[in-house]
Design goal:
The structure holds two protein chains of two kinds. By secondary structure, chain A is of the alpha/beta class. Chain A folds into two domains: 218 residues, Rossmann fold, CATH 3.40.50.620; 31 residues. Helix content of chain A is 31%, strand content 24%. Chain A is built from seven helices and eleven strands. In chain A, helix 2 crosses helix 5, helix 3 crosses helix 4 and helix 3 crosses helix 6. By secondary structure, chain B is an alpha+beta fold. Chain B folds into three domains: 109 residues, Butyryl-Coa Dehydrogenase, subunit A, domain 1, CATH 1.10.540.10; 109 residues, Butyryl-CoA Dehydrogenase, subunit A, domain 2; 147 residues, Butyryl-CoA Dehydrogenase, subunit A, domain 3 (Up-down Bundle). In chain B, 54% of the residues lie in helices and 15% in strands. Chain B has eleven helices and ten strands. Chain B has a four-stranded mixed beta sheet. Chain B has a four-stranded antiparallel beta sheet with strand order 2-3-7-6, covered by helices on one side. Chain B has a two-stranded antiparallel ribbon with strand order 9-10. The radius of gyration of chain B is 21 Å and the shape is globular. The relative contact order of chain B is 0.12. Classes of the chains: A alpha/beta, B alpha+beta. Chains A and B meet through helix 2 and helix 5 of A and helix 1 of B.
């Protein structure tokens, strides 16, 4: 069976972010794009399923400027994905969850899969919209905040768990479907050095920008407009409370909260 | 055209090594240092991920990296723990004689099964009576029919208590000095191969070091590398290959020292402001940064030279000597930036000084490196 895993290039957590000159978006200059967090869990889930069901192939799909998308696709191949599709973002189209979903849907129409996996959200915008929107366009059910997907009945069904408030919900569901995974529940593996080397030479299928532009045209102009992009103000220094007993620490803290922070009347 | 930019492939290799160093090695560095523990579970994981036999070509089951790429990885690992790094890269040193002196048959017979599983190997050159003067080694190799009989003792051998394979340098006739030395591959399970007890070391305490005694150890002739008397040349050419990664290891220590010092200087306050705002500290950090930068570039250039087919004796000696001296200086200054805290074992910088010290001594002491540098230099003024 075919599994597709959707991966988004996001800025490396150690990258120093700054707004672009117009103050409306992230300045991409010097940003390192990585496969991160939730998507790593999705790739790991796909690989676990592949290992449990021989004959399964896993295709990683990424939407964005080709240089960024290729970077995370090669990372996914190094981890063990079999194939990769780079969905090239048309110039001048703003980053928007519904546009991304339309572009990924186009790719999935060319490279169909009975199970589509993705992170429940991405570490940059955290919108959590792309997965459900892709499911809507594919007209398949979407299961969010999922952990531990298992295939049953020769790949016709699956069982999965959803991490809900205070516990885990166990479900059985029919395929095709889209599953959005919780972060880091499955201890994502590290790519082996020889596989990293091989991944640099692996072929990547492409969905050209022109095709994407046509597919997303119906979504334009965007429902939302981005007005400004600013960094949070720098943190000011923490103030240490000196104390001898916990009671003294609590009293001093309450005094600060009341007199300086004006939290209490 | 000279190019100092890393390719995206090199960036991915470096990032992978960095991730391994931070998530698998760094959290255990202090504990292994304190206890003198050899964290075999970490070394096993390093092998699984292809971080261990970096210099062995893929056809024999290794990772097959250029020396430059090896250096990128070694610097990242050493940033987390130089001692663990020494144990991880010891296979490269021990296997290089096989790559340089072995026949295709020997390489496949020895390396294929060795690399296919987690195994450690040790390079056995130094003896109790001398390390730098390798030409006068005393371990004997007596030919007896279809095998050699080895007798003698090696010391300061990295990974020896845990190794399954030793590359051993021994002489058929000490009066021939370096011309009498041959190289042998000796499996651990050979009768008469006796690793000693682990040494208590000043630094690199996550690495294991011991003597290895050979008492009538029988080694088949087909385990001799190269011709009789070729051993010294194999040993020296091996060290030409492996000296440069020691420059990278030292650069990793120096970078770690700078990172710790710079980070601490922004948090520690004296006279009402962070010490990073005092010029006395800024000058220290600036000097440390220069040393780290120069160490890295010299190491890169030496690796580049060797990857381009040159023996690189001069360049690798400069890289190893400069980088390890720089690591000592930078670690020393990092302790000074930390002040009294830097002297305490609870903080990470005193370990760096202890670890840096070994880089000035092993794989050719820095005095030997300077002799090599002077010799190569003076030849050019003939």
């Amino acid at each position: 069976m075919e599994i597709a895993v959707l991966v988004k290039p996001v800025p490396d957590a150690e990258t120093r972010l700054r707004p672009d000159p117009a103050g409306k978006g992230l300045d991409p200059e010097g940003v390192k794009w990585v496969l991160a967090g939730y998507d790593e869990s999705a790739v790991e889930q796909a690989l676990l399923l592949k290992e449990s069901a021989p004959g399964t192939t896993v295709r990683a799909i990424s939407y964005g400027p080709a240089v960024r998308a290729d970077e995370v696709l090669r990372a996914a191949i190094a981890l063990g994905c079999d194939r990769a599709t780079s969905v090239e973002a048309p110039a001048g189209v703003a980053d928007d969850p519904l546009v991304t979903a339309a572009a990924l849907h186009l790719a999935l129409s060319r490279f169909p899969a009975s199970l589509v996996l993705c992170g429940k959200q991405t570490g940059d915008h955290e919108s959590g919209l792309v997965g459900p929107a892709v499911a809507e366009l594919l007209a398949v059910p979407e299961y969010g905040v999922a952990v531990n997907v298992r295939l049953d009945a020769g790949g016709a069904e699956m069982t999965l768990q959803q991490s809900v408030e205070g516990g885990l919900l166990r479900l059985r569901a029919k395929l095709p479907a889209l599953v959005a995974l919780q972060q880091a529940w499955n201890d994502p593996r590290t790519a082996k050095l020889p596989n990293i080397l091989k991944s640099r030479k692996a072929p990547i299928d492409r969905v050209p920008a022109a095709d994407v532009a046509a597919a997303v045209a119906a979504r334009l102009p965007l429902a939302t407009r981005r007005l400004a992009f600013r960094l949070p103000p720098p943190r000011t220094g923490a103030k240490m409370i000196e104390y001898k007993t916990p009671e003294e620490a609590a009293q001093k803290l309450v005094r600060i909260l009341r007199e300086k922070a004006k939290v209490f009347p | 055209m000279v190019d100092f930019a890393l390719t995206s492939e090199q960036t991915s290799l470096r990032d992978m090594a960095r991730k391994f160093a931070r998530t698998e090695m760094a959290p255990h560095a202090a504990e292994c240092d304190r206890a003198g523990r050899f964290p075999e579970e970490i070394y096993r994981k390093a092998w699984e991920l292809g971080l261990m036999n970096l210099n062995v070509p893929t056809e024999f089951g290794g990772t097959g990296l250029s020396l430059f790429d090896q250096c990128l990885i070694v610097e990242e690992l050493s940033h987390a723990c130089a001692g663990m790094t020494t144990s991880i890269i010891a296979n490269c040193l021990a296997l290089e004689p096989i790559l340089l002196g072995g026949t295709e048959e020997q390489k496949h017979r020895i390396l294929d099964p060795f690399c296919a599983e987690y195994h450690l190997a040790s390079f056995c050159l130094t003896e109790p009576s001398g390390g730098s003067d390798a030409g006068s080694l005393k371990t004997r190799a007596r030919r007896d029919g279809d095998h050699y009989v080895l007798d003698g003792e090696k010391c300061f051998i990295t990974n020896a208590p845990f190794a399954s394979l030793y590359t051993v340098f021994a002489t058929g006739d000490p009066s021939l000095r370096h011309k009498g030395i041959s190289a042998f591959v000796v499996p651990r399970d050979t009768e008469g191969v006796l690793p000693g007890k682990e040494e208590e070391k000043m630094g690199h305490r996550a690495s294991a070091t011991s003597t290895v005694r050979f008492e009538g150890a029988k080694v088949p002739v087909e385990n001799r590398l190269g011709a009789e008397g070729e051993g010294f040349s194999i040993a020296m050419r091996t060290l030409d290959q492996t000296r440069t990664p020691i420059g990278a290891l030292a650069t990793g220590i120096a970078q770690a020292a700078l990172d710790h010092a710079a980070d601490y200087s922004k948090r520690r306050q004296t006279f009402g402001k962070p010490i990073s705002e005092h010029q006395a500290i800024q000058i220290k950090l600036a000097d440390m940064a220069q040393a780290v930068h120069a160490a890295r570039l010299l190491t890169w250039q030496a690796a580049w030279t060797i990857d381009h087919g040159d023996r690189g004796s001069l360049e690798s000696a400069i890289a190893k000597c400069f980088s390890s001296d720089a690591a000592m200086r930078v670690a020393d200054e990092a302790i000074q930036v930390f002040g009294g805290y830097g002297y305490m074992k609870e903080y990470p910088v005193e370990k760096l000084l202890r670890d840096a010290k070994l880089a000035q001594i092993y794989e050719g002491s820095n005095e030997i490196q300077r002799i090599v540098i002077a010799r190569e230099l003076l030849q050019r003024y003939a």
